[in-house]
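Study both lines:
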Amino acid sequence: MRLRTDDDIYRARLVYLGPPGYTLPVQLPYAQYGLFVLLVPLYMGIHWLFTQQFEIFPAWEIALAIVTTSYVFRHVDPDRPARMVIRTALTDWKRTREPVTERRDPRLVARRVVVRQAIT
């Protein structure tokens, strides 16, 4: 007897295939389109802050948004949604790192022990 698992639930993805009659060559979930649409203006704003110029076709910004989106969704799975991956990335870059050189903790050693008969 074979047991049916709940894997079908995890395989079901909300995917935009393209307009009716014209299928796109790639199948991306709606969340990837949304993140891409948010990242392009963000990168355009960063580019404008550095150069004070606005480009008609932002090729570098689109390329960076594609790479960032693919990197984020490489770590997404049914148990870890995209918002948690982004939140983890934003909080982990601030963490303290281990020092490169080893620091030894000070040792407390008694060099001389004095024993008195009475407390004065």
User: Anything to note?
Assistant: Helices lie at 7-11, 30-51, 59-74, 82-92. The two ends are 88 Å apart (CA to CA).
